[in-house]
Design a protein that fits this description.
alpha/beta
């Protein structure tokens, strides 16, 4: 099937287009390139994404967006529409900021038209996990297959990454008494949400060990039983309000917990 490249930037498209054109030549890819820029307003990006959504050809999406809101909107769109995408700006910034330590920022650098769909699923799931980890952007909740909620040290991030390896797009949201949960959490089906619980004793040991590894005193409020019980009670109230299933992670390995979560998901699907 024919391919087409879309290039979006909030700067001058003339500054970015030559780079994409050269990459296409090196890859031996001859296809039209539709470039848009400068894109500054959200309604402008929405119009372009609307055109991409109606595109009949296979789309490859490049973007160089400085404004984080626009960048995240494009990223969420690409995940939802299953479009291979590459962020031209973030890898360069990351390289400069980490003094040469590389980190994959885009949704995969392999953009060939014959990309293995299974590989693409993994890339999209891992990239989704990184982008929306620890409640960084509540907009990801709408696009997630699963949403994990719980207080600190309930294995939310390890579970998110493990489930990504199984091709599930997962968002995890921390619950803290001092922070109001995102409204998006109450707008989705409770079947997509899983509450993670843990015994106070295990959590106390985990938090004290965490403080020790950071060189901090283990008797801080963060690792007090009173604080832990307060957080657990608050999380219990949120989970009851959402009416979501729960999984006790006490004494369990990540793989075991993940299997329980997926079994709950399958049961919910079978019940309709």
């Amino acid at each position: 099937m024919d391919q087409v490249i879309y290039l979006l930037t909030d700067g001058r498209k003339e500054d970015v287009l030559p780079f994409v054109e050269k990459a296409c030549r090196l890859a031996g890819l001859a296809c039209p390139i539709h470039s848009y820029g400068p894109i500054i307003q959200p309604d402008s990006i929405d119009r372009v994404l609307g055109r991409i959504r109606k595109e009949e050809k296979v789309v490859i999406l490049f973007h160089a967006l400085e404004e984080s809101g626009l960048r995240e909107e494009v990223h969420a769109f690409a995940i939802k529409e299953r479009i291979p995408t590459y962020d031209l700006l973030s890898p360069i910034l990351t390289l400069l900021m980490t003094a040469g330590k590389r980190e994959l920022i885009g949704s995969g650098s392999g953009l060939q038209g014959d990309m293995d769909p299974s590989s693409l699923d993994h890339l999209l799931a891992y990239d989704f996990a990184r982008r929306f980890d620890d409640g960084q952007d509540p907009r990801g909740i709408h696009y997630a297959d699963l949403v994990l909620i719980g207080i600190s040290r309930t294995m939310k991030t390890p579970l998110t990454l493990y489930l990504a390896s199984r091709k599930f797009r997962v968002v995890n949201v921390p619950l803290l008494p001092e922070v109001t949960p995102p409204a998006e959490l109450f707008r989705i089906s409770p079947k997509k949400v899983v509450g993670l619980t843990v015994s106070p004793d295990q959590l106390l040991a985990l938090r004290r060990e965490r403080l020790k590894s950071l060189g901090l005193p283990p008797d801080s409020a963060y690792a007090s039983l009173e604080r832990i019980e307060e957080e657990l009670e608050y999380a219990d109230g949120i989970m009851r309000q959402i009416d979501c299933p729960r999984v006790d992670v006490t004494g369990r390995a990540v793989e075991e917990i993940a299997e329980i979560i997926l079994a709950l998901r399958e049961d919910e699907d079978n019940l309709g």
